[in-house]
Design a protein that fits this description.
The complex is a heterodimer of chains A (161) and B (419). Helices cover 34% and strands 20% of the residues of chain A. Chain A has 161 residues and is α/β, with parallel strands linked by helices. Chain A has one domain (2-155): Aconitase, domain 4, CATH 3.20.19. Chain A has a seven-stranded mixed sheet with strand order 4-3-2-1-5-6-7. In chain A, α7 crosses α8. Chain A is globular, with a radius of gyration of 15 Å. By secondary structure, chain B is of the alpha/beta class. Chain B has two domains: 5-263, Aconitase, domain 3 (2-Layer Sandwich); 273-418, Aconitase, domain 3. Helices cover 30% and strands 18% of the residues of chain B. Chain B has 14 helices and 18 strands. Chain B has helices spanning 5-13, 39-49, 73-88, 103-109, 141-150, 175-186, 201-204, 208-216, 232-238, 299-302, 305-315, 333-341, 344-350, 401-410; strands at residues 24-28, 31-35, 60-63, 93-94, 118-121, 135-138, 152-156, 160-166, 195-199, 225-228, 259-264, 271-273, 281-283, 294-297, 325-328, 353-355, 376-379, 395-398. In chain B, the strands form five sheets. Chain B has a five-stranded parallel sheet with strand order 4-3-2-5-6, covered by helices on one side. A five-stranded parallel sheet of chain B has the order 16-15-14-17-18. Chain B has a four-stranded parallel sheet with strand order 10-9-8-11. The chains are: A alpha/beta (161), B alpha/beta (419). Chains A and B meet through α4, α5 and α8 of A and α2, α3 and α5 of B. The complex binds iron/sulfur cluster. Iron/sulfur cluster is lined by residues 65-66, 102-104, 123, 125, 299-300, 360, 363-364, 381-382 of chain B.
Chain lengths: 161, 419
């Protein structure tokens, strides 16, 4: 499965408080959460992400609070995949659990710029900078996480068992 | 092969004789926890799984603490989802306003977590319970919803980092200073996916309150859990709080650690984590003159009786600085009551503090002490991310209760000795 879209690039240690600030956690409606995603850091984000856009993050993406509202807001806003140098533990788990694809690739994150057009093959993990024609490889997804994704998230995975 | 404490608890809960880092396990959960922010999503997932009832009504704790007493209409609706669910499924450990407190303060206080337990919570600071010899870690709402249905969780066995604290503690240096010092050394990602085992002669003397503060912030360097060996201090703490039998695990002499960090505390003074990251740590003595608008004493990191007593000792007979707001929030209903009985609340009131009901309050920028642009707060909580307590143009400095109290009097970040 291929995702293609515009890159929204962020730095290191993007915590879940900046992804969805606490003042928006008084609801769990995912459309409202999506509208307020990155409200302080990049206020234009929630309103202008196109379906299939891609987030590039530095190291430790999604650190801090366990709020699943963060990956949910990102997914609902339309982001098709997050590529980061590394992910914080709880965010990594949450993203797989709700079916938001995430990949790790240091090279891709260092080379690709904000606004670039990128395509990501979720099966092979190949990341292509469409403008420049350069390809990067992502770390393989662990088998167990793959099984959760293939099932369509943790709930479906558990139901099947 | 020998095992660490974390490995032993994980093995015991997944029916295995031995486990090693990297093993993927299906583990049985002794207690599952959620709060008014994470429970509504978890409850939705619970129903999606399709079971008609929870796995065990006595092994789930639901704690309204983030936005209660309800701060606005939407948060009232969220709290109601949790209350209704607790009522419908007859959840034993649901704590209503008036009987509540911050989740990570009341669970140990009420003896709901004891040595050897495996606790999973939809809150990142669930790692707090390592202080009482339990394996505990935070997850998101989907994991928690599934656990409420099945009583089980998948976990990967983490490698363990052993941290040995030795030397002699200086006056006014406590668990908070030790843990932020360590986070400063490790960095916010330094223990990602790892377990931390806190050991050494210094921690053997530390109270459970100080240990809770340290385990609480293990997540701030990315750790999955931060655990202490159960000893006499632990056993004394749980003695009158539970009728369940604790299981005491000790690391084997040949247990394998990924690395060992030795910290001599003798020269470590009180520490402060500067904005906007818990690893941006300096000694308070080298912090210059950081003028403050607000001091917050509370949260699941330092909202316990010992913390309040230490702050009150410094504030006794003194007043907060002119123009500074001092906000004190006891971590639980019981702590509030004990603080009244011991005259601690009176000391705070005389010092010009305002006292809030037991809740997370301003810790997460929820309510009761939000900061506006340009404002600075010294806080005994655990996170100082950009915008954590309000506007992204505000600043949060993380300190222990002694420095918080001294700073409230000085009007700037400073040491008790400066008073
Ligand atoms: S006090 Fe702060 S860190 Fe602790 S549970 Fe509440 S919001 Fe989270």
């Amino acid at each position: 499965m291929k995702i293609q879209g515009k890159v929204w690039k962020f730095g290191d240690n993007i915590d879940t408080d900046v992804i969805i600030p606490a003042r928006f956690l008084n609801v769990s409606d995912k459309e409202i959460l999506a509208k307020n995603c990155f409200a302080d850091l990049r206020p234009e984000f929630g309103g202008s992400v196109a379906k299939g856009d891609i987030i590039l993050g530095g190291s430790n993406f999604g650190c801090g609070s366990s709020r699943e509202h963060a990956p949910l807001a990102i997914k609902t806003a339309g982001i098709g995949v997050i590529v980061a140098k590394s992910f914080a533990r709880i965010f990594y788990r949450n993203a797989f659990n709700i079916g938001l694809p995430i990949l790790e690739s240091k090279e891709a994150v260092e080379a690709i710029l904000d606004g670039d057009k990128v395509s990501v093959d979720l099966i092979t993990g190949e990341i292509t900078n469409v403008n420049k024609g350069v390809k990067y490889a992502a770390n393989p997804i662990p088998d167990f996480m793959r099984a959760i994704i293939d099932a369509g998230g943790l709930v479906e995975y558990v139901k099947k068992q | 092969m020998g095992m660490t404490i974390t490995e032993k608890i994980l093995a015991a809960h997944s029916g295995k004789n031995s486990v090693k880092p990297g093993d993927l396990l299906q583990a049985k959960v002794d207690l599952a926890l959620a709060n008014d922010v994470t429970a509504p999503l978890a409850i939705k997932v619970f129903y999606e799984v399709g079971r008609s009832d929870v796995f065990d009504r006595e092994k789930i704790a639901l704690v309204p603490d983030h936005f209660v007493p309800n701060k606005d209409i939407p948060s009232a609706a969220q709290a109601k989802i949790m209350r209704d669910f607790a009522g419908k499924h007859n959840i034993k450990h649901y704590f209503e306003v008036g009987d509540m407190g911050i989740e990570h303060v009341i669970l140990p206080e009420k003896g709901l977590v004891i040595p050897g337990d495996l606790v999973i919570g939809a809150d990142s600071h669930t790692c707090t319970y390592g202080a009482v010899g339990a394996f505990s870690t935070g997850v998101g709402s989907t994991d928690l919803g599934v656990i409420m249905a099945t009583g089980e969780v998948w976990l990967k066995v983490p490698p363990t980092i052993k941290v040995v604290f030795k030397g002699t503690l200086q006056k006014w240096v406590g668990g908070k200073d030790l843990i932020i010092y360590l986070i400063g050394k490790l960095g916010v990602e330094g223990a990602n996916y790892r377990a931390i085992e806190f050991t050494g002669p210094v921690v053997k003397e530390l109270s459970i309150e100080n240990r809770l503060t340290m385990s609480n912030m293990a997540i701030e360097c990315g750790a999955k859990n931060g655990i202490f060996e159960t000893d006499e201090i632990t056993m004394n703490y749980i003695k009158d709080r539970t009728t369940r039998k604790p299981v005491i695990y000790k690391a084997d002499p040949d247990a394998k650690y990924e690395r060992e960090i030795i910290i001599d505390v003798t020269d470590i003074g009180p520490q402060v984590a500067w904005p906007h990251s818990p690893d941006n740590v300096k000694p308070v003595s080298e912090s210059g003159s950081v003028k403050l608008d607000q001091v917050f004493i509370g949260s699941c990191t330092n909202g316990r009786l010992e913390d309040l007593a230490q702050a009150a000792e410094i504030l006794k007979g003194r007043k907060r600085a002119e123009g500074l707001r001092l906000i004190v929030i006891p971590g639980s209903q019981l702590i509030y009551k004990q603080a009244i009985q011991q005259g601690i609340i009176e000391t705070f009131l005389d010092a010009g503090a305002t006292i809030g009901p037991p809740t997370c309050g301003p810790c997460l920028g929820g309510h009761m002490g939000i900061l506006t642009k340009g404002e600075r707060c010294a806080s005994t909580s655990n996170r100082n991310f950009l915008g954590r307590m309000g506007d992204i143009g505000s600043e949060v400095y993380l300190v222990g209760p002694a420095v918080a109290a001294a700073s409230a009097v000085l009007g700037r970040i400073g040491l008790p000795e400066e008073l």
